[in-house]
Every structure is written in structure tokens, then in C-alpha cells.
Specification:
Rossmann fold; two-stranded antiparallel ribbon
Length: 173
Amino acid sequence: MTPSLALSRAESLIRAIPDYPKPGILFRDIAPLLADREALDATTEALVAPFRGSFDVVAGIEARGFILAGAAAIAAGTGFVPIRKAGKLPRPAAAVDYALEYGTATIEMHADLPAGSRILLIDDVLATGGTLAAGQQIVERLGYVVAGISVLFEIDGLGGRDRVGDVHTVFRS
């Protein structure tokens, strides 16, 4: 299957689930995409391609961002750094609080990289931008450089791009 066909297939595998996790939210379920090797490979490459050679490590935001960032790190030949929800790391070096579409949350990150490391930040969905803005803040707070931001899916009209800045998206709605 050609890369463009695999990307088209990948997009068709993203399911819209209304009213999850609460009424008024339209959840994008990427589980079928993740289960399809060709679709996952094509989306992983699409997430990394614009930034090849410009980053030292890939960071993924919990939870689905982990899956995509781990695959991207392997495809790019780099390491992976998790950005986790509060209380999930044994020795977090920094924490950032942020607002979600449906509540608030805190993310944490270790400081295990050399100062100035260039990080490709990956998450699954860009909606209002709260999670990715917090990811940018925590990376920079720890003395690293955000070399780029890449997301699988962007929901237009929610202001995420205005909040985060330049973001590479694979799919949009």
C-alpha cells in the first residue's frame, strides 16, 4: 500500500464517539488505527517527517501520546521521554497545571536529558491546546528546546493552534 493510501486508510479508522467521556465531548477513538500496522506506520512517519534531523528525542504526553511518540521515536532512531499525569513518576523534576475541555489536570516530567536537548513533542489530539501548551511549558522549564510539535488529529475551531503556535497535524476536522 502506498503511503498516501495508508494515510487515507488511517484517517478512515479514527472513530468519532459522541458524549465521551462526558456529554458534549466528541471523542476521537484511534484504537482501530493503532491496530492496523500499515496505518500506524504511515501516521508515525507523517508525525516525524517534517522534523527529521532537528530533534534529539521524542516526548509523548500521556496517554495516547505515549503510543504515538514511542512509535515515532523508534521510526526516527531516537529515545522516548514520557510526560505523565501527576503522581505517576517516582521523581518528577517539574509539574505544570492546565485546563482541559472538560476539567483540569497536571503533568510531570523527569529531567534525565542533557540541558538544551531538542525535543519533538507529540500528542494525539489538538483541541483547545491546554495539554500541548502545558507540554511546551514543562519541556522549556526543564531547560530543553521544543524542536517541533506534531499531533495526529486537530479539531478546528477550538483555538488550540492559537494557544500553542506552529503545530504539524496529520489529520484535521
